[in-house]
Amino acid sequence: MTTPRDLMITAMDVAPSPPVAGELSLALAGAELIDLLAAEAIRLEDDRIVPAHRPALADRLLDQATTSLAREAPYESVADWLWRRGRGLAPAYLAALEADGQLTRRRRRGLPFRTGRMVPVDSPDRRRAADRWASHEPVLTALATAVGIPARDKGDTGDRRAEEAPGVPDDAVETVLVAVNEALIELEAVRQRRSIEQAAFDNIWRGN
Question: Who's near 116: CB < 8 A, 6+ residues apart?
Answer without folding.
Answer: 105, 106, 107, 108
